[in-house]
Design a protein that fits this description.
15 helices; Protein Transport Mog1p, Chain A; seven-stranded antiparallel β-sheet; 3 domains; alpha+beta; single chain
Length: 521
């Protein structure tokens, strides 16, 4: 049974469907990554289950398949023609996935995995058919739970917007970081208030709506741009309205779970208005025109692809897709076994010759639980100095040195970060890139210098740290790493910096030796 050409295509020859063997091999090549990269699939689904922000991931694959089904006539208009050059891109994605596994960069592993499907389709279908299905194939990337990186800047924007709007209303506001006080009560902008779930939902829906509603690239880009801008501004307005409701009601309304309900209702209304306005510029969808190849009789023809037999080139390409996809998980398995270090971690900082002192703060970093934790308080001249070392080995998503959930202070902790900047100091005669942060409560202030030690290298950057981790594991040297934090009272910033700098100069070498001893175990 052959597919009919779309209306309006005159003289186009129908194309026989794929043979059963070719169809089976095609399905196997496209489904195999789900089994080969099952760990990555499981990590994606676990985030869908644990976070409402990414729960929409369950509907991405069904929507993608539905969009492909809407264009099913393309398989007769543009018969699959294997495209071997795409295999090189598939290999690059596999190498990227392996590098991300070595560096424990989960989001990169997930994106490279998801990107394998459109690239595998390009290799098997050819450029013409794959291009005609580009959006449905690329829409799969929305299944990857990505967006945590935007939480901090969105929190900052929402706090800035809300405070400015409240002040413009004529209400006095006392602000400290992302927390602020009104005469009627206290407020703080936390992760749930960042609007990241509104933003991700809006972008996903906006891209789908633009694809289904417009043909013009300009209109699609403009609408997608609106779907990015509108939820950010709308979330600022939402936060302002909730603060005003709480203020005007004497903190009786919009101070609990009800403000989340108000937020979703407001977001739904904003999205409805945006899509309603966008409908005024809708364009009817056009069916693709069939390729016009002339035969000897002058009639337009479409080249046939498959009859009863499977073309050897198609079979070879499908087998190559399977082989390339299988190569990288096998390499990752070998690497994980070689890098595993069963030795326990035992930190020893006996080489630091400073008198110990009593605790001067209740601050603790909000990090994933390490293999070993060491905390000491020293009397470093006029100021006490707290040294915290968190050591990680055989890392995974539950125990990772560099993770989006690791913070100096949690969003709801008594301590909160009000300022942070990069600095370059010296440790043992080597430049040391670190981060200087100011933490505050209502009464106290702390200055914290934090940096990471990974495989013998120091850095204050998470991105550089991940590269060092991947390089160390690629050389089969393990994934040992540590977070180092130095904290002193921060009432006088210059005195605090001088104390921290002197500690690194005089005792940094002892700290370095202690970390290196662990790496050798």
């Amino acid at each position: 049974m052959f597919l009919k050409p779309p209306p309006g295509v005159i003289g186009a020859a129908t194309v026989p469907p794929l043979s059963r063997a070719a169809t089976a091999l095609l399905v196997l090549a496209l489904l195999a990554p789900f089994a080969l990269y099952f760990g990555t699939v499981r990590s994606i689904v676990s985030i869908w289950n644990s976070s409402e922000t990414f729960a929409h991931g369950y509907v991405i694959l069904p929507i993608s398949l539905w969009l492909i089904w809407r264009r099913r006539e393309n398989f007769s208009l543009y018969p699959p023609t294997p495209y071997p050059p795409a295999l090189l891109l598939l290999a690059v994605l596999g190498a990227g996935w392996l590098a991300a596994q070595l560096g424990e960069v989960q989001v990169v592993s997930q994106y490279t995995f998801a990107a394998m499907f459109p690239v595998a389709a390009l290799a098997l279908f050819g450029p013409r058919l794959a291009a005609s299905l580009a959006f449905p194939l690329l829409f799969l990337l929305f299944a990857v739970p990505f967006g945590d990186v935007f939480v901090a800047p969105l929190i900052q924007f929402t706090a800035d917007f809300t405070v400015a709007a409240v002040r413009a209303t004529g209400i006095p506001v006392l602000r400290s970081g992302t927390r602020f006080e009104l005469p009627t009560g206290n407020w703080s902008v936390v992760e749930a208030c960042s609007g990241v779930r509104y933003l991700i939902s809006s972008i996903t829906l906006g891209c789908l709506y633009a694809y289904l509603t417009y043909r013009s690239t300009v209109r699609r880009v403009l609408f997608i741009g609106l779907s990015v801008l509108v939820p950010i501004v709308a979330n600022g307005l939402r936060a302002y309205m909730i603060v005003m409701i709480g203020h005007l009601s004497g903190m009786e309304l919009a101070t609990g779970v009800d403000h989340i309900i108000y937020g979703w209702l407001f977001f739904g209304l904003v999205m409805f208005v945006m899509f309603w306005i966008g409908s005024f510029w809708r364009e009817d969808t056009e069916r693709p025109a069939a390729p016009a190849a002339k035969g000897v009789d002058g009639a337009a023809r479409v080249p046939a692809f498959a009859h009863a037999a499977m073309p050897p080139r198609f079979a070879a390409t499908a087998v190559a897709v399977l082989a390339i996809c299988a190569l990288w998980p096998a390499a990752a398995m070998v690497g994980e076994r070689a890098n595993h270090n069963p030795a326990p971690v035992q930190l020893d900082l006996a080489g630091i010759g400073l008198p110990q002192a009593g605790e001067f703060t209740d601050w603790k970093p909000a990090y994933l639980e390490p293999d070993a934790r060491l905390h000491r308080v020293y009397q470093a001249g006029a100021l006490p100095l707290g040294l915290t070392v968190l050591y990680y080995r055989n890392q995974d998503k539950e125990k990772s040195l560099i993770s989006s959930v690791n913070r100096l202070a949690g969003y709801e902790d008594a301590w909160h970060e009000v300022d942070g900047t990069g600095r370059t100091e010296s440790l043992g005669g080597r430049p040391l890139a670190l981060r200087e942060s100011m933490l505050r409560t209502k009464q106290d202030a702390l200055m914290v210098w934090s940096f990471k030690w990974i495989g013998g290298h120091y850095t204050g950057s998470d991105y550089v740290g991940k590269l060092w981790q991947a390089a160390s594991k690629a050389q089969l040297r393990g994934d040992d790493g540590a977070a180092v934090m130095l904290a002193v009272p921060g009432a006088d910033p210059e005195q605090a910096r001088a104390t921290l700098r002197r500690f690194l100069q005089e005792h940094g070498a002892a700290l370095d030796r202690a970390l290196e001893r662990q790496r050798g175990h």
